[in-house]
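New to this. Look over this protein:
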Amino acid sequence: MTTAPSQAAELHRRSVVADTHNDLLCAVTARPVDQWAAFFREQWLPQLLAGGVNVQVLPVFIDDTYRPEGALRQTLRMIEAAHRIAAGNADAVRLCRDGAEVDAALDDGRIALVLALESAPGVAEDVELLETLYRLGVRIASLAHFGRTPLADGSGEDAAGSRLTRAGVAALAEMERIGMMFDISHLGAAGVDHVLELASRPVIATHSSARALRDHHRNLTDDQVKATAANGGVVCVNFFAPFLHESDYTLDRLVDHIEHLADVAGLDHVGLGPDFVQEVMADTTPPCCAHPVIEGVRTDQFLPGLEGPAGLPLVTEGLLRRGWADGDVAGVLGGNVLRLFRDGLGQPAS
């Protein structure tokens, strides 16, 4: 099936586009403090606008060099960077704390920014700090990256078969109480299952693809995808090429993952979590080790045209070429995430 570029461009333009994982705060905080807002405006805002991004989740990811002693300090620096980005670019973006604020930003023609914690090393077992970070605007959190934390094991530790620790169970309960959404991406397989057993509120996988198509521990099994959908959550597809296929790094392989997740979870439970890391890694990785191998894959492999946010209209084109209906495409682009945020973001338990 052929699709006119103008048809795809028009659909993309009038759809809400939500990116649930962009590590741009890492690049911003690598600059001097007085450049944070301007660097975002010059380097990232044009890309987000070119890609039609309306909702941008900003994860707070703490590099190993800050762990453990400096993790909380760097967490606070990155949160401060998000606030300075919003204050210095108030005509274009708004830092949002709930679904109503997201809608208000969209109505104003601004990009809604949502703060998230990736792995939460600054919290560790001090679960009470989640409420502190909530007060600072954080609305989504995960409990692990690739390795082990006091709360849970990351997917790189799958051989241990570990569920959430006692502190991890307490963290999940606290997040549900205060209205912070739980992110299952990067969590070990047994931990994902544990969360889905315990969770009483919808969860999100901010950047995970389908393990049935690419057997890598960073991806979710069909059973986990089904359980996330049954929980009311959304699985947002990771664009990182080695997590999609062993060698065929093309848009078609990304669309394969989107279609598979939609078949397994249902069309209302799939979104986009691109994890655009090429520019971030170039900005933050010393030349000595610019292309390391992490978790068995090289980190310099990307989908052509989808190295950054400006390429997002290609996803709309790819889905339309597969015969998707306009409304279903719009749901995957951001409608499903927007519904999730409207229903649960920043909403304390009643």
In short: The mean pLDDT is 95. Residues 169 and 212 are 28 Å apart (CA to CA).
